[in-house]
Amino acid sequence: MYRLSQLFVTLFAVALSTGLQGQQVTARVAGLESNAKYMSLLEQEQRLHRTEDSVVQVINDTRKLFTAETTDSEKEQLGTKILQLEKELFEIRNQQGVTANEIGAIEQDFILKNLNGTAENPAAAGTPAPAGGKQTPNLVYNVYFKENLSEQDYKALRHAQELEPLPLKLLGTYLENYRKADSLATLYDTTANKTLAEETYAQLESIGSLNRALSDSLSHVWNYIYDNKTYAYNYLLDKMGKNEMLDKFGTQFRNNRQQIAAMQDSVASETVYGYPLNKRLLLGYEEALAGILGYTAARDSVNKQSEIFGKLHYDLPKIAPKERIFIEYADIERASPSKYNASNPIPEMEVYRQGTVYRIQLGAFTQKQAVSLFKGVYPLCYEKSEDGKFRYFAGAFRDAAAADAGLAKLKSMGFRKPEIVVWRDGRFEIPGETGGEGTAGELSTLYRVEIAGQGETISEAIKEVTDSQAAGKELSRATNDDGSYLYSIGNFDSKEAADSLCRAINAVSQGSATVLALDY
């Protein structure tokens, strides 16, 4: 394990160096440079990213060792270390998500406080239009709008203004979820742990559903704000005779619409992408009106908002990782005693929706079989087919060449007619046949004698019969679901031989034996 120890020494050294060699961080939003908590969180985020890079490197190096290792014990230790490292990586990325959320919350709060004049006049959003020509930083509360719009239109404009903070709150939650999803998608694409991948994929689907709902809510709220504000502003500009200005805003609106339409297939949400574009257009209206009307306080407030929104761009790519299918490939081995028993039965076969897996069919039976029939071979699995038979399979191979090698191994173990079968994207095939769906080819029949009604040991009378008429045949015991025992003797090439033994057993045990035909 010297190489593995060296890897962890390297990880420790890199982690230490990343803690000592951080680059100077700068505020992502102008005006937050003096916020000590914000700057500390940015430094923490930077450290977490460096640590993440270090752990990813060690995981990659450990995987290379795992692939090259030939000793089972060291391979097992390397596999355990990889799982530990992946758990550490998952925790680091969780911390990144928490840190990013805190950073985003501070930034969104700062933006909200600097919008619509609320920083200069926190009560502006709830105050009526001032009388007597007194100005307010919140444009729509200035007296001109009340005097020049109908009561209904002004009420709608006021309500649109009151709703302005809501899109940013929805957007903040959306971005927080998006950052989580982005981190989870990276983990999902890189982990080799099936359970962790399945849990991560479920989280991604949940976050995706939440963000679709948030995007719909943002669209609904923003459309109300935008439609009511642009209607009022266009009406007032037309009333003033500002036709050139109206033409300019009309052109910008059409350009925005074309730009958003062009990006709809490549961004996570066209609503989120389009919000800052159309918000900047709306601020252009408000800046023009404030200038024409001489509302300097409102114009200054709008200019500050324009500066903030000029930095917002949400061309976020779609997060839609393709669902991974973890096919557990395994070569055929033999164990004594068998790895399967009453407490660890042969499992039902998993059919993978995607990917290709070859298996070797050992036989098709009218009922489940005792594990002793399969001579200690593993891994095994079974499926109950549409014809009601239980089909047993050995191994799971990536390609036909590996399956051929497994087939030869089974024949050398004494299996009479093992047959290669394959599933492609969940569809069963027999190589060489056409038509896709199929059943195993021509089957041969063997026979076994099954004995019921016995205890933990078989009776001496039956034992004498089997010793004389079935010398050299395998005797196995299986436990039924109700706790009773079922003994099985075989295999017999001919039905006559099996029937003869069955009659002899029944002569001494009152009809407890039956003959079972086995299709291979």
Feature tags:
520 residues; alpha+beta; Methane Monooxygenase Hydroxylase, Chain G, domain 1; 9-stranded antiparallel beta sheet; two-stranded antiparallel ribbon; 13 helices; 54% helix; 13% strand; disordered N terminus; coiled coil; SPOR domain-containing protein
Short description:
The protein is α+β, with helices and mostly antiparallel strands. Helix content is 54%, strand content 13%. The two termini are 47 Å apart.
Walk me through this protein's architecture.
The protein is an alpha+beta fold. It contains 13 helices and 11 strands. Mean pLDDT is 82; it is low at 1-20, 116-129 and 434-443. The strands form 2 sheets. Strands 2, 4, 5, 6, 7, 8, 9, 10 and 11 form a 9-stranded antiparallel β-sheet that branches. Strands 1-3 form a two-stranded antiparallel sheet. A hairpin with a 2-residue loop joins strand 6 (419-424) and strand 7 (427-429). Helix 5 (151-163) packs antiparallel against helix 7 (194-240), helix 6 (165-190) packs antiparallel against helix 7 (194-240) and helix 8 packs antiparallel against helix 9. Residues 68-95 form a coiled coil.
How many domains? The number is 4
How many separate helices? 13
Range of strand content: 5-15%
Instruction: Give me the strand/helix succession.
Output: HHHHHHHHHHEEEEEHEEEHEEHE
Largest sheet: 9 strands, antiparallel
Distance between the termini: 47 Å
Radius of gyration: 37 Å
> Fraction of residues in helices?
40-55%
Which structural class should the secondary elements be placed in?
A: alpha+beta
Let me know the number of strands: 11
Shape: elongated
Q: Runs with pLDDT <50, length 5+?
A: 1-20, 116-129, 434-443
Give the assembly state of these chains.
single chain
Please, what is the average pLDDT? 82
Coiled coil: 68-95
Protein name: SPOR domain-containing protein
Keywords: Coiled coil
